[in-house]
Amino acid sequence: MWTKEEVRWLLKLAREALEYGVRGLELPPVPWDRLPPRLREPGASFVTLYRNGELRGCIGALEPRLPLAEDVRVHAVAAALQDPRFPPVTPDELPEIEVEVSVLTPLQPLGYRDPEDLLRRLRPGVDGVVIEDPATGRRATFLPQVWEKLPDPRVFLAHLCLKAGLPPDAWLHRPLRVWVYQVDEFRESDLPEIALGAEEAGYNEHASRSGL
User: Fold this and answer.
1) 147, 50: one domain
2) DSSP 113
3) Cα torsion angle, 158, 178, 153, 128, sign
4) Are residues 177 and 187 in the same domain?
5) pLDDT for the residue 193
6) Tens of pLDDT, residues 63-78
């Protein structure tokens, strides 16, 4: 379980990084001495941005390489500016953006005998799924939240294959490697007081001028 303080910090760090990054400003230092210990430990996260309820960007890491606080900041900026599916988020959009932070559990390999066995082993709504084609190295993941839009496992796998740059039926005809994981997800709308504007996130006109 995550404490309210930990969740507040995760969302605050993501929002602050988003506000600064979209404006082209250098991020302020991470306040390590004020953070809960859990956020100073290595962690893997995805940051998802929504605009008016629609996906606007999503970038993350499957394995922990940075302290969780820094991991969240890096991916908040990347989700806004580097998701190849979308144009970069603009400053005018920021008031309409909602931030979601997903913290991942370690990946677990999912063995299976054949496509039907794979379908039986998937847990819709519970597991995030990673696939990898050993022949090409192509890889992709869907967070557990994607099951809400793609509840049919066959359709889910077809779209995941497409995301990896594979034919949609690759999971039927190729021996793909599969891993699963779970997430703890937190949205700004779950804690409305976290939904910071530019000033509350630490951005101000002076910082804008001095940073350019």
Assistant:
1) no
2) S
3) negative
4) no
5) 60
6) 999 999 999 999 999 9
Residue 56 and residue 146 share a domain: no
Using CA atoms, how far residue 187 sits from 22, 36, 113, 122, 150, in Å, is 19, 19, 37, 25, 20
Say which residue the tokens 């988020």 belong to: 89
Q: Give the C-alpha separation, 191 to 174, whole Å.
A: 43
The torsion defined by the Cα of 125, 59, 90 and 12, in degrees rounded to 10, comes to 80
> Of 107, 77, 103, whose CA–CA distance to 89 is shortest?
77
- CATH, residue 161: 3.30.1490.150
CA–CA gap between residue 66 and residue 48 (Å, rounded) = 18
User: 162 is in which domain, residue-wise?
Assistant: 108-181
CB-CB contact of 5 with 188 (8 Å): no
- How many structural domains are present in the chain? 2
How far apart (Å, rounded) are the C-alpha atoms in residues 75 and 79? 6
pLDDT in tens, 128-182: 999 999 999 999 999 999 999 999 999 999 999 999 999 999 999 999 999 999 9
> From residue 11, how far is each of 15, 33, 133, 185, 204 by CA, in Å?
6, 18, 34, 10, 19
Considering the domain architecture, whether residues 193 and 207 belong to the same structural domain is answered as yes
Single-letter code of the amino acid located at 197: G
